Amino acid sequence: MSLVLREARLDGRVVDLLLEDGRIAAIGPDLRVPADAETIAAAGDLVAPAFVDLQLNGAFGHDLIEEPESLWTIARRLPRHGVGAFLPTAISCDESRLQALIDVIARGPAADFVGARVLGLHLEGPCLAPARRGAHEEAWLRSPAAAPAALRHPLVRMVTLAPELPGAPELIAELTGRGIVVAAGHSMAGPAELAAARRAGLKTGTHLFNAMSGLHHREPGLAAALLDDDALHCGIIADGIHVDPLLLRLALRLKGPDRLYLVSDAMAGAGCAPGRHRLAGQEVLIDDRAVRLPDGRLAGSATLLDRGLAIMRAATGLEIDALLPLVTSTPAALLGEEIRLEAGARADLVLLSPSAEVRATILAGRLCHRG
């Protein structure tokens, strides 16, 4: 079955897109299309690649550590928020729970599955600084010398660690040699320690500004060092809670859209009403704004990438077109994944209103969501 998007906005033009066999077959005005093709009237909405989220701990009432089998339920629902690919993320926990999630990914989804692609696994921890552990339980933290075997599993695509820990540069070099993207996060590192980590192969920073040493004028911490290094990427949470709009603007100005990317850092309560939820065995409370542990510490986000993109638009005053790399090509490129919106490319697409509302999501040429 062919699918046609009529009158979509792309690079300042209004075009039609013909999708066949899971790929973009043609782009242009007034395309000739098969008579039996399904048609979607884009009516001038922006067509863009589907979003890529590199940090998602759960959503829609499901926690990936407590319910690893819920992975495919989450993946089926993410297209409603424009997400076409993601890294399920495990925070520091018992190694048997990590293995259970790895096993679910390895088995793959059911034959009739339609939803966001799982790109691998992001292990956020357990080699983290206790002073910056955030919602990670201290009992599960480990030194680089005692890093669990799961960090080296072939399905692992990203690992977040504290680069100042003894043995961290050696672990970074080993993981990088295995093709794993290593990120600095939950850390007290300063510029010198980050520089050593970069020489070992570190590529990015996890949730910039949060759970890391910051921007003190006499003691520039990890956040300052990440912003200063033009070669490093940074993930950032744009949920209206974790980072002030001024710092969202500053981060984009310093890193640019080819180095800064949005992550949801979503947990089980994302997509749910406020109330009590779970994060890797801990109870958390979501009010109308934030996700917190009983002691008040932030514990992930209840915001998914479509909302994050809208918040970034409001913070910067930029149009959606200029911000699209933050949720598409930039996170994909960090993992070595190519995103193209041209004939022959995989047909993973979203239609967006000017305010970043997801009108439709198409994955592998199949309509997965229509708003």
Task: Describe the structure using short key phrases.
371 residues, alpha/beta, Urease, subunit C, domain 1, TIM Barrel, 9 helices, 28% strand
Chart the SSEs and their pairings.
Elements: E1 3-10, E2 13-20, E3 23-28, E4 38-41, E5 46-49, E6 51-56, E7 58-59, E8 62-63, H1 71-77, E9 83-91, H2 95-107, E10 117-118, E11 121-124, E12 156-161, H3 168-177, E13 181-184, H4 191-200, E14 204-205, H5 222-228, E15 233-237, H6 245-255, E16 260-263, E17 275-279, E18 282-286, E19 291-292, H7 305-316, H8 320-323, H9 329-334, E20 349-352, E21 358-363, E22 366-370
Parallel strand pairs: 1-4, 6-9, 9-10, 9-11, 11-12, 12-13, 13-14, 14-15, 15-16
Antiparallel strand pairs: 1-2, 2-3, 5-20, 7-8, 17-18, 18-19, 20-21, 21-22
Task: Describe what this molecule looks like in 3D.
This protein is of the alpha/beta class. It has 2 domains: 3-44 and 343-370, Roll (Urease, subunit C, domain 1); 50-334, Alpha-Beta Barrel (TIM Barrel). 22% of the residues lie in helices and 28% in strands. The chain has 9 helices and 22 strands. It has helices at residues 71-77, 95-107, 168-177, 191-200, 222-228, 245-255, 305-316, 320-323, 329-334; strands spanning 3-10, 13-20, 23-28, 38-41, 46-49, 51-56, 58-59, 62-63, 83-91, 117-118, 121-124, 156-161, 181-184, 204-205, 233-237, 260-263, 275-279, 282-286, 291-292, 349-352, 358-363, 366-370. Strands 6, 9, 10, 11, 12, 13, 14, 15 and 16 form a 9-stranded parallel sheet that branches. It has a 4-stranded mixed sheet with strand order 3-2-1-4, with no helix packed on it. Strands 5-20-21-22 form a 4-stranded antiparallel sheet, with no helix packed on it. α6 (245-255) links the parallel β15 and β16. α3 packs parallel to α4 (191-200) and α6 (245-255) crosses α7. The longest helix has 13 residues, at 95-107. The protein is globular, with a radius of gyration of 20 Å. The model has no long low-confidence stretch (mean pLDDT 94).
